[in-house]
Amino acid sequence: MKIIDAHCHIGDFGGVFNVRITGDELIAAMDEYNVVKSICCSLPNQHTIDFAKKYPDRAIGIVWVNPNDAQKAVKWNSVITGLLFEVLNPLELMASAMLPERL
Question: Which domain CATH number covers 43?
Fold first, then answer.
């Protein structure tokens, strides 16, 4: 049986979580638990893009796009190859207002 992780994140998660995992660490954990592929997202989006490009046979990347920002959606579509999804999340309005450099 093949195991696919349908939702994972890479990066730094401070605050009350204070958790950090790199793409390489995620791949090591996947190997340890026989996970063949992970669907992954992170902010900033570039982390996801780099991870999916480094491990194209192991990672499917998801990028976050504000659906009210068509220019940014077009930008991500033109930059990304091999990613299967975009998360069109209007809540990114709030996140991008607070942390615009993360998107």
Answer: 3.20.20.140
Total domains present in the chain: 1
> Would you give the DSSP letter of residue 100?
G
pLDDT digit of tens for each residue in the chain (103 aa)?
Answer: 899 998 999 988 877 878 899 999 999 999 999 999 999 888 888 888 889 889 989 998 887 776 676 676 666 555 555 555 555 555 554 444 444 444 4
Encoded tokens for 35: 């996970």
Question: What is the DSSP code string of 21-63?
Answer: E-HHHHHHHHHHTTEEEEEEE-SSHHHHHHHHHH-TTTEEEEE
Q: State which residues form the domain around 87.
A: 3-102
What is this structure's pTM?
Answer: 0.71
Give the position of tokens 């480094």: 54
